[in-house]
């Protein structure tokens, strides 16, 4: 993200990969005009690190958002709209996620609902409600083609949502509701890319690697800074050729 400063929104920005994205975007070489760092409880103990970052960087705006709640998403969209005006929102990153590790035999209605609401319905509502701001960004932009500097929705998915990779990974990590939610997110993204390509809004899916966060656990293969450095570099390189792509943090295409 060079040249023109962009406006960005990240969900689940108070810890893990979301917090690291905020950090690298405002402290690195990305030119960020406004960064809307969204989290469920901005004044709670789990948002202290994010609050500290916002204190240091006035372009970071913390907004309350429960990514699984349509009412909260609508409120957040109104607040963002009031701040970006006709300049719109260039990049929406659906990062908030919930992991339920159940198998088919012990999964519960509650576990399945929370997972689907957070990982699938959330990104769907976010896309619907932020569409006017993304369209405004396209209108305000002078950049040809598609890019994350113009208007894009990047959703953080997982290789666990790949149907082709189930045989190799299910026995050591079942997480059936999580897999279903990420497979649904992948389909949602491909459909959105098809429906909105005429609007020049780019849609892409990124798998962050197996990362040492609360979700990934201590056994993860890489740390959050490495994953996020990779993902930001991939985001920066996206063009219409990667519309509806399913990539990992190194830019490698993953099988559906
Ligand atoms: N870590 C990995 O190895 C890995 C691998 C593949 C994919 N991913 C994906 O990467 C993304 C980030 O994961 P992570 O490793 O950073 O996980 P994490 O450390 O567990 O953080 C999850 C984040 O999502 C937020 N969140 C959960 N439900 C939410 C809701 N309803 N509304 C708003 N925020 C909500 C959490 O906020 P609270 O603090 O309020 O709970 C937290 O900020 C997820 O989409 C995940 O599926 C991670």
TrEMBL record:
- CDD domains under this entry? carb_red_sniffer_like_SDR_c
Quote the protein name from its UniProt record.
C-factor-like
Instruction: Describe the family membership recorded for this protein in Swiss-Prot or TrEMBL.
Output: Belongs to the short-chain dehydrogenases/reductases (SDR) family.
PANTHER family on file: C-FACTOR, SHORT-CHAIN DEHYDROGENASE/REDUCTASE
Q: Which domain of life is it from?
A: Eukaryota
**Under the GO molecular function aspect, what terms does this record hold?**
oxidoreductase activity
Q: Which GO terms describe its cellular component?
A: cytoplasm
Q: Which organism is it from?
A: Sparus aurata (Gilthead sea bream)
């Amino acid at each position: 993200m060079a040249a023109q400063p962009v406006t960005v929104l990240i969900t689940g920005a108070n810890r893990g990969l979301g917090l690291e994205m905020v950090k690298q975007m405002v402290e690195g070489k990305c030119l960020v005009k406004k960064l809307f760092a969204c989290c469920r409880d901005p004044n709670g103990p789990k948002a202290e690190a994010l609050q500290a970052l916002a204190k240091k960087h006035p372009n970071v705006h913390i907004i309350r958002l429960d990514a699984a709640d349509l009412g909260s998403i609508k409120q957040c969209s109104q607040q963002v709209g009031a701040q970006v005006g006709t300049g719109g929102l260039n990049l929406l990153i659906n990062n908030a996620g919930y992991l339920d590790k159940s198998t088919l035999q012990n999964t519960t209605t509650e576990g399945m609902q929370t997972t689907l609401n957070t990982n699938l319905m959330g990104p769907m509502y976010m896309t619907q409600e932020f569409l006017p701001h993304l369209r405004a960004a396209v209108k305000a932009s002078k950049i040809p083609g598609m890019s994350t500097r113009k208007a894009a929705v990047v959703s953080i998915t997982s290789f666990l949502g790949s149907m082709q990779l189930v045989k190799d990974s299910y026995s050591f990590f079942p997480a059936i509701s999580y897999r279903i939610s990420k497979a649904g997110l992948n389909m949602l993204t491909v459909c959105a890319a098809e429906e909105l390509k005429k609007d020049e809004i780019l849609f892409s899916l990124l798998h962050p690697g197996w990362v040492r966060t609360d979700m990934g656990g201590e056994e993860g293969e890489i740390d959050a800074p490495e994953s996020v450095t990779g993902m930001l570099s991939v985001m920066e390189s996206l063009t219409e050729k990667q519309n509806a792509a399913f990539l990992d943090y190194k830019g490698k295409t993953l099988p559906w």
